[in-house]
């Protein structure tokens, strides 16, 4: 079951879609962005440049810019969150990365600090799928708050 993420606060309809698969053609994620936010696809892929042949026009009706359907395994999904919006070191387990992100958010007074602390606690003993759902909710809330 994919996790729905909202990675921008942009209200524009998406113009571009990028889908990533494993080498065995298993779907990892499908992201939709507008022309203005197409640079986010680089962050999603972790690449320094984007193969424009891999992108295609958004479906009709177009989803909102920043809509991401995430099918990745937990480790890859956490790395995606780290690249997109968490300020965390890349080393360590995903639970350690979340703990580091929460500590940094508390230290810097980030508005998401309480939520990230709760997620870090859930990562210690909760199911990974629940942790990913919570991360997606906080990421979406941060994108919505950025619009205000």
The assigned structural class equals: alpha+beta
- Nearest-integer average pLDDT: 83
Helix content: 40-55%
The SSE order reads: EEEHEEHHHH
- Extract low-pLDDT stretches: none
Work out the oligomeric state of the chains in this entry: single chain
Please tell me the total number of domains: 2
Q: What distance separates the N and C termini? A: 31 Å
Write a short abstract of this structure.
This protein is an alpha+beta fold and 148 residues long. It has five helices and five strands, in the order βββαββαααα.
Structure description:
This protein is an alpha+beta fold and 148 residues long. The protein has 2 domains: 1-72, no CATH class; 73-148, no CATH class. The protein is 44% helix and 16% strand. The chain has 5 helices and 5 strands, in the order βββαββαααα. The chain has helices spanning 40-45, 74-84, 94-108, 113-125, 128-147; strands at 3-6, 16-21, 27-33, 55-57, 67-70. A 5-stranded antiparallel beta sheet has the order 1-5-3-2-4. α2 packs parallel to α5, α3 (94-108) packs antiparallel against α4 and α4 runs antiparallel to α5 (128-147).
């Amino acid at each position: 079951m994919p996790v729905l993420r909202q990675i921008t606060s942009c209200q524009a309809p998406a113009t571009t879609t990028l889908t990533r698969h494993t080498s065995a053609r298993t779907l990892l994620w499908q992201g939709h962005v507008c022309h203005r936010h197409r640079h986010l696809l680089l962050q999603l892929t972790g690449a320094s440049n984007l193969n424009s042949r891999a992108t295609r026009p958004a479906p009709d009706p177009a989803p909102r810019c920043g809509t991401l359907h995430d099918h990745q395994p937990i480790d890859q999904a956490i790395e995606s969150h780290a690249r997109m919006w968490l300020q965390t070191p890349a080393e360590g387990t995903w639970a350690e990365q979340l703990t580091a992100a929460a500590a940094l958010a508390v230290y810097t007074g980030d508005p998401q600090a309480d939520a990230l602390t709760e997620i870090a606690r859930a990562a210690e003993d909760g199911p990974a799928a629940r942790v990913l759902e919570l991360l997606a909710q906080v990421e979406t809330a941060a994108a919505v708050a950025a619009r205000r």
